[in-house]
Amino acid sequence: MKNLQDASERICELKGSLIAIDALLPALLEAMPVASHSQLVRSFEAHAEAARAVMQPVLLSEQVLATFEREIVRLRAVLAGTAPPAPRSATEAALLTTTRVSTFLGPSSLSGASGFFFRRDGRLFLVTSRHVLADETSSHFPDRIEVEVHTDTLDLTRYAAVSVPLYREGLSQWRQAADSAGDVDVAAIEIDVGSLPASSILHAFGPEHLEASGDIAEVGDALVIIGFPLGFHDTVHHLPVVRSASIASAFGVRFQQQGYFLTDARTHRGSSGAPVLRRSQDPNADRSQLPWQLLGVHSTRMDMRTRDLLQDESLGLNCAWYADVLMALTEPATAAAKA
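Request: output the structure for the sequence above.
Response:
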């Protein structure tokens, strides 16, 4: 440097360069994919620790050491502030609660239905209609079912079929219930989480979705039924379809002394076991990514034996068993045994 003025100009140039680099660094970090950003954070911490080890035996001024630590803190904040958000699911969470249920007897395929996941106290259950798993009237007795689960958050074409045995040592593995009017057409079977692919992507309802929380359902309220009518679904992305419905009988009242209420909806075979949902109206309800109230489990269409098949259209009404039965079906084994 020729003189003090040259030195001052050079210092100003260096400051300007550092500011430009400071502007470039966050832009580069924000453009990085999640995995690369996480790897960079780990690598930065490792190299910072290595730099401390190198500086330790060297005689450096307190100002240099303090500046180093201050810059480490600043850069750590930059890294934290530019962390890309976790990838969002490619679809609504509600569609990932429901799965197609295929029944088998040995290698032979028997039928298709709907089912949904329910989680309680860390345990995962598949819920469907009881007649999907065993139906004396039609002599339908499968020995296993298959359910489909997605395995990639963003690529919905990737999935796995999981086989679930219905019997072990001759004993049925599902839970069912009965009340004063007879059998309840709802069943729950526990899913061994270890049998699912490590990358499984699914959502499950829980006890919190059964609670009204002051949000009382009434006759005429809009509902949705998520399922696989006649097996129809998005075969590329393995997603169910949604039918619009409404509450068609006094909610909370057992229709004709049975443990169900009626819905007004166009449904078909294959929808048995589908969740009957009402969008939550309570802004304070703690339902995380599933802002729905689980009201019932779709079972079957309601019709009249006296209907003239030529002159009268079907009623278009359906039976939905009250979902609070799931609290009994998913109790811990010891509590269920005592009950």
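The chain has six helices and 15 strands.
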